[in-house]
Amino acid sequence: MRRGALILLAGTWLAGCASGHAALRDRTNALLTDYRARVPAPVTAPEGGAPRTWEVGQYVVYAVNRDGRPGLVRYAIEARTAEGVWLGIQELSYDTQTLRRVLLEREPKQAGELVTLARRAIVQAEGTAARVYDFEVDSSPVVAKMREAMSPLWAAFLQAPSLPGEATTVSTAAGRFEGAAPTAVRLEVLGVVSDFTGRRHDAVPISGLVRAATPDETASIELVEFGDDAASPLF
User: Model-level pTM greater than 0.70?
Assistant: First the structure.
């Protein structure tokens, strides 16, 4: 192939990447603008003062930020089958649009179970075919390490613990949460696992997390929407 043709192909590929990233940036910014324009309404905790149990259709959407890079992530309880419960994670940022689904044998009670309960995972990045990891059928060391590496992604489905300290009112685009308790969680945000401290509330499904940040404030996560009807996909 002549050098001129190579340059043309390379230029076309780079233009495609630039166009794709521009579309992701525009989609991310449009959603963030929409969420942040909402007027937060008061949100009260359910009677009984206990965290909500998992129900199919529950979802939460968070605005996230890592080193100044904004994004959105959506966690959802998608389905219950004879095999277990399917969880879904949608991640959208300036350079990422990824869908992940995992089948857990049952609802986890603690972080250590996130690896052992995972039976299958499906990962699909924008423009690529879905990749299926069957952890029960394929027992190779490579797949075992893949399951362990993925487990921090599922940590966002664990209940964020209530810690000692004064309950406060926290306002986000998702609502004004009175009586939000202190909490500390370890999450993967935009590809990096970090320890976060913040606030949780029993009205919020799945983890209960409302807002949190790393101690050095290089990463943050903030609830912008939640519900029980499987609404608001990011893409």
Answer: yes
